[in-house]
Amino acid sequence: MWVTNLNRLPTRDRLSSWGMQVPSCCCICTTEPESRDHLMLSCPFVLTLWAEIRIRLRCGVPNFST
Ligand SMILES: [Zn+2]
Fold first, then answer.
1. How far is the CA of 24 from the centre of ligand 1 (A)?
2. In whole angstroms, how far apart are CA 30 and each of 14, 33, 35, 56?
3. Distance, CA 59 to ligand 1 centroid (Å)?
4. Between 60 and 41, where is the model more confident?
């Protein structure tokens, strides 16, 4: 999790910033540029996943924010 917190995931925006030729769109939803914040906070697939996790854990954990 610290890798995510420190924004060290090899997301496509970071790969592009290193000069790699990769598509910029999200590998899951393909609707927005792929970044840590998109993958963890705003990707439609991930939002559904977080909602399902909250239901299964039966806890009132609020949504993450930036
Ligand atoms: Zn996405």
1. 11
2. 16, 8, 12, 27
3. 25
4. 41
